[in-house]
């Protein structure tokens, strides 16, 4: 059978190959329930997965009209904060950023006035008495502290008691050398702080007075340190009345504390002994004058 030139029976090979390749590239997938292609629509490239991709939808920015609120400036916020809020905020700030603690302490004044310390300590002491459980006993303790409080009262005021004692020691440590070079300022604060310490309530159980007794030991050491620093000052030793006055003050505090300040008292007495010959000579001169006066009266 002869073959005609340019004529072949059946489909052309090129057409069949294109159809088979197009069918093979298209995967049979389950039709989507949400949306189906219409008859007019056709997936690009013969694949339906192209239309399943999420399309980016452009969002229009709505214009905001009117005045919007804004936070206060830092200076105004500090003006509206009371002392407690400012103190708590500052402490939290230092805890979160410990590196600023040295900078904050460097900005503090080198010394504070005596009234500032006394006002702070007196406020802490008032908190102790304000939290006593019995009002009648509280009023009686302000005049007579011979009767001790029970264990329940100690539990009620323990936190305020420790706060007062810690504050007292902190204030004293800041007001002694080398922080403060004025020994008279240190002695005056010691006098005021020791007087406030003696006003703390006494408890019937000995163990409940432990913190107060330990604080007395620390205060006694501070007294001794300040006395040693003060006696190195020539002007302090030169003034006989000044040494005698502080000796009397320390004796009163020692009596109220039942001998807990005997160590600084003995130390001050040792520095007062060189001054006694001068006082003795003055006393002898007065005694020598008295017999003459008596004799003249007799005659």
TrEMBL record:
Disordered: region residues: 280-299
InterPro entries: Cut8/Sts1_fam (IPR013868), Cut8/Sts1_sf (IPR038422)
GO molecular function, one term: proteasome binding
Gene3D superfamilies: Tethering factor for nuclear proteasome Cut8/Sts1
One GO CC term on file: cytoplasm
Compartments, as annotated in UniProt: Cytoplasm; Nucleus
Biased composition (Polar residues): 282-299
Keyword Protein transport: yes
GO biological process, one term: protein transport
Keywords, comma-separated and alphabetical: Cytoplasm, Nucleus, Protein transport, Transport
Highest rank taxon of the organism: Eukaryota
Quaternary structure and interacting proteins, as annotated: Binds the proteasome.
Assigned protein family: Belongs to the cut8/STS1 family.
Role noted for this protein: Involved in ubiquitin-mediated protein degradation. Regulatory factor in the ubiquitin/proteasome pathway that controls the turnover of proteasome substrates. Targets proteasomes to the nucleus and facilitates the degradation of nuclear proteins.
Name by which UniProt lists this protein: Tethering factor for nuclear proteasome STS1
């Amino acid at each position: 059978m002869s073959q005609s030139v340019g004529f072949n029976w059946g489909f052309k090979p090129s057409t069949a190959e294109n159809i088979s390749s197009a069918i093979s590239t298209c995967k049979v997938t389950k039709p989507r329930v949400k949306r189906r292609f219409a008859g007019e629509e056709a997936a690009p490239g013969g694949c339906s997965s192209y239309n399943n991709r999420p399309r980016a939808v452009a969002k229009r920015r709505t214009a905001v009209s009117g005045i919007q609120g804004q936070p206060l400036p830092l200076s105004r916020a500090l003006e509206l904060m009371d002392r407690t809020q400012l103190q708590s905020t500052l402490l939290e700030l230092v805890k979160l950023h410990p590196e600023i603690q040295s900078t904050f302490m460097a900005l503090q004044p080198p010394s504070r006035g005596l009234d500032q310390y006394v006002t702070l300590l007196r406020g802490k002491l008032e908190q102790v008495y304000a939290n006593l459980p019995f009002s009648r006993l509280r009023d009686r303790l302000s005049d007579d502290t011979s009767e001790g409080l029970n264990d329940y009262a100690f539990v009620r005021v323990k936190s305020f008691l420790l706060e007062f004692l810690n504050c007292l020691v902190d204030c004293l440590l800041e007001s002694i050398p080398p922080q403060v070079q004025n020994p008279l300022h240190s002695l005056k604060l010691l006098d005021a702080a020791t007087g406030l310490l003696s006003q703390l309530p006494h408890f019937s159980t000995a163990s409940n007075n432990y913190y107060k007794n330990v604080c007395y030991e620390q205060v006694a050491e501070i007294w001794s340190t300040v006395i040693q620093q003060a006696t190195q000052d020539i002007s302090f030793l030169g003034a006989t009345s000044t040494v005698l006055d502080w000796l009397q003050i320390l004796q009163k505090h020692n009596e109220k504390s039942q001998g807990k300040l005997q160590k600084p008292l003995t130390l001050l007495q040792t520095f007062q002994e060189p001054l006694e010959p001068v006082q003795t000579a003055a006393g002898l001169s007065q005694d020598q004058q008295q017999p003459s006066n008596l004799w003249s009266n007799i005659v």
